[in-house]
Specification:
Largest sheet: 4 strands, mixed
Distance between the termini: 38 Å
CATH superfamily of the largest domain: Schlafen, AAA domain
CATH class of the largest domain: Alpha Beta
CATH topology of the largest domain: Methyltransferase, Cobalt-precorrin-4 Transmethylase, Domain 2
Strand order of the largest sheet: 1-2-5-4
Shape: globular
Strand content: 15-25%
Structural class: alpha+beta
Number of strands: 10
Number of domains: 2
Length: 213
């Protein structure tokens, strides 16, 4: 893989030279799960220099230990990324969850949810957690949400930038709306295809009884 094709750190990407202690790593897993998902690139230093991973099994165990501190359990998968010079990175894909808010559980049972703000992982205020719980079970769809759903209904999967271009909405707005649709179990994200409708999403579109945009 060409190092230039690795995305910079941002709302959906995080670089790690090595896996931090589980409580700290768990915050990033929770933040990506509460958002639109993300990727953690293990073996990349903060300056953007690829160092590679020497012991993949050790890294996987450390990531699983971090995931065990998040409730509900995050959906993660591991992918070895060869650099072409004998070294490899480990990419950890974190899916956007539909059962949030995803919280890191402390030693005393305290629960803290997190979100990404650009390339920073931030705790979510209590008021926001309450709103997320409400939205995870009920979503009142607006016209722009229907435009996104109908686009996905007629496709085999679309990425955020394509959805933004086709709907003429900004990527930030599309990302925000897709997070809500994910939490309502109307859409999901599939590796290699992007965002797709769930069976529940197809049902809602059929019940709407109109054609797409």
């Amino acid at each position: 893989m060409d190092i230039k094709s690795i995305p910079p750190e941002g709302p959906e990407d995080e670089w790690k030279e090595k896996v931090p202690r589980p409580p700290r790593m768990a915050r990033t897993l929770a933040a990506f799960s509460n958002g639109t998902g993300g990727r953690i690139w293990i073996g990349m230093c903060d300056e953007g220099q690829p160092l590679g991973v020497a012991h993949f099994d050790t890294v996987r165990r450390a990531m699983n230990a971090a995931a065990a501190l998040v409730d509900p359990a995050p959906q993660i998968s591991f992918h070895r990324v060869p650099l072409g010079d004998g070294r490899s990175l480990l990419r950890v894909d974190v899916r956007s969850g539909s059962e949030g808010p995803y919280c890191v559980v402390g030693k005393e049972g305290e629960r803290v949810a997190y979100l990404r703000n650009r390339d920073i992982t931030c705790p979510i205020p209590e008021s926001e957690i309450g709103r997320m719980r409400k939205n995870s079970t009920h979503l009142s769809l607006q016209e722009k949400d229907w435009r996104l759903l109908f686009l996905l209904e007629g496709s085999d999967g679309m990425r955020l930038n394509e959805l933004a271009r086709r709907t003429r909405m900004g990527e930030r707005e599309v990302r925000r709306r897709m997070v809500a649709l994910h939490r309502a179990s109307l859409t999901s994200e599939v590796e290699g295809r992007g965002h797709v409708l769930t069976p529940r999403g197809f049902k809602r579109c059929r019940e709407r009884g109109v054609s797409g945009p």
